[in-house]
Amino acid sequence: MNIHTYEKLWLVAAMVLIVAFIATITYGSVGLGITMVGDQQDTVEPTELDGDRFDDPRVAQVGENEYEAYVTAQIFSFQPDPVVVPENSEVTFYVTSRDVIHSFSLVGTNVNTMVIPGEVSEMAVEFDEPQEYGVVCNEYCGPGHHDMEGMVQVVP
Ligand code: CUA
């Protein structure tokens, strides 16, 4: 069977588009001053968060420009609130829920994860410029769902 040259060309063009779409999804936030560079999952016992690393939700410095943020979601808030991190930092977020399914979504970015009791959502995010990002919950979690908000402050 002989594939016409134009047909080959269109096949290649289609492949390039598919790769470009995937790249856009993966690196879509480039240019917004924020990049999601990792996304993994770990587990935790939701009823035993006290005494665990989520005992005291906080931001901890672990390297020169590296930070770890331990965040809990619960009806209808996030802790800590606000999450304060310095500019030009790489922050690994560890997010879990104390009760039901929530989400942890930074408004206007592609930083967005479901927050499931028993699981730890892990995301590494680079923050360049000082800015405030609203945090919202995108999973319906009860009557206060629409008021469930937090804040990430990137400070100089
Ligand atoms: Cu938490 Cu919706």
Automatic annotation (TrEMBL):
The lineage of its organism: Archaea, Methanobacteriati, Methanobacteriota, Stenosarchaea group, Halobacteria. The chain holds residues 1 to 156 of 300 of the full protein. Residues 54-156 form the Cytochrome oxidase subunit II copper A binding domain. GO terms for molecular function: copper ion binding; cytochrome-c oxidase activity; oxidoreductase activity. It is an enzyme of class 1 (oxidoreductase). The keyword 4Fe-4S does not apply. Keywords: Copper, Membrane, Metal-binding, Oxidoreductase, Plasmid, Transmembrane, Transmembrane helix. The chain crosses the membrane at residues 9-30. It is found in: Cell envelope. Its EC number is 1.9.3.-. It comes from Natrialba magadii (strain ATCC 43099 / DSM 3394 / CCM 3739 / CIP 104546 / IAM 13178 / JCM 8861 / NBRC 102185 / NCIMB 2190 / MS3). The keyword Transmembrane applies. GO terms for cellular component: membrane. This is Ba3-type terminal oxidase subunit II.
